[in-house]
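Milestone 3.1: sequence recovery, worked example.
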């Protein structure tokens, strides 16, 4: 069970968010359901608690404390996701003129410096497709929960702790080609999140109450919308044009590479399930990413960074870096097995 262990949440920056209006009830309930369904398959998992922190920073994280796990998401992250999904959907409707900008600014931890300092900008949304908005918001929430669960479930948290204890990377840098091994763990978490979000929402493994699932019923449309909103969410993180040697030192893979790895994931899920499709998957994915970039630019006044995304396919140095992140899993896998709560098959 996932009784929220209030003590730990209270001690975090901001303390626990008091959701007086029960605005996030469905998120909390859905998260519990997800945790229980993972636990039913892997009973060795220790207790996992989930809570919202009263902190405006953009972050979600997981910690291991006294033999139990804690997944925390900040109220800032939930507000940003709501703001993002409502405004990209308003922009998508294509009305001309000034688009409402994201109420996000670079003073917040986790938000890249290039975000302009802006005052919250509230407007009414007459053109928004609320079904899409709710669907997108739900996809992003589900994705984040599975991403964090993977860090627990596959032993990432315990492995990281071990590395910290002995103060070294544990891995031979030659084999890893200088890529911070954390990036491979993040790739693994993104892959787990993509797979499980798709199984829950598209293949209806999980029943979600109170959300109109219009686009969830059609494969092409679901994949398009999945890419569209996950692209938008990842786009909130750093999309700077850095050289490969700088990227390798970071904790997460280059955002454009994360998205391209998600593309690959979707392809292998469909192959594994032996699902025949009557549309071009790559074309559908690319179209969704292009539209997401266009709408994101409208609501931020930032420059269009499609070139950064396209580079993943055109620049051999970046392509090699992407392939190496995946290859590095074979090296990390052996260490991870010691800490994982399941068999690692990949
Ligand atoms: Zn992560």
């Amino acid at each position: 069970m996932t009784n929220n262990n209030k003590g730990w949440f209270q001690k975090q920056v901001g303390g626990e968010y008091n959701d007086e209006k029960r605005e996030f009830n469905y998120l909390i309930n859905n998260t519990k359901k997800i945790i229980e369904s993972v636990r039913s398959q892997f009973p060795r998992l220790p207790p996992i608690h989930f809570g919202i922190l009263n902190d405006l920073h953009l972050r979600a994280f997981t910690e291991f404390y006294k033999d139990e796990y804690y997944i925390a998401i900040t109220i800032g992250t939930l507000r940003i996701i709501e703001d993002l999904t409502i405004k990209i959907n308003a922009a998508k409707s294509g009305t001309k003129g000034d688009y409402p900008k994201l109420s996000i600014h670079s003073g917040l931890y986790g938000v890249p410096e290039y975000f302009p300092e802006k005052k919250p900008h509230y407007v009414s949304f007459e053109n928004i497709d609320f079904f899409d908005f709710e669907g997108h918001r739900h996809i992003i929430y589900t994705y984040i929960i599975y991403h964090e669960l993977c860090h627990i479930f596959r032993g990432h948290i315990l492995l990281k702790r071990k590395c910290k204890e002995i103060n070294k990377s544990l891995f031979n840098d030659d084999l890893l080609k200088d890529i911070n091994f954390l990036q491979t763990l993040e790739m693994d978490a993104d892959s787990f999140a993509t797979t499980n979000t798709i199984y829950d929402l598209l293949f209806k493994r999980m029943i979600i109450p109170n959300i109109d699932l219009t686009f969830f019923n059609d494969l092409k449309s679901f994949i398009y919308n999945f890419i569209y909103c996950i692209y938008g969410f990842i786009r909130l993180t750093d999309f700077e044009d850095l050289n490969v040697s700088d990227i390798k030192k970071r904790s997460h893979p280059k955002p454009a590479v994360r998205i391209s790895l998600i593309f690959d994931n979707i392809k292998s899920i469909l192959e594994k399930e032996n699902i025949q499709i009557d549309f071009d998957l790559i074309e559908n994915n690319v179209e969704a990413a292009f539209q997401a970039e266009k709408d994101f630019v409208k609501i931020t006044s930032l420059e269009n960074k499609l070139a950064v995304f396209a580079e993943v396919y055109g620049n051999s140095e970046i392509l090699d870096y992407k392939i190496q992140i995946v290859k590095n899993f074979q090296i990390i896998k052996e260490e991870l097995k010691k800490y994982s709560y399941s068999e690692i098959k990949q």
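The beta strands are 48-53, 60-65, 68-74. The CA atoms of residues 50 and 71 lie 5 Å apart.
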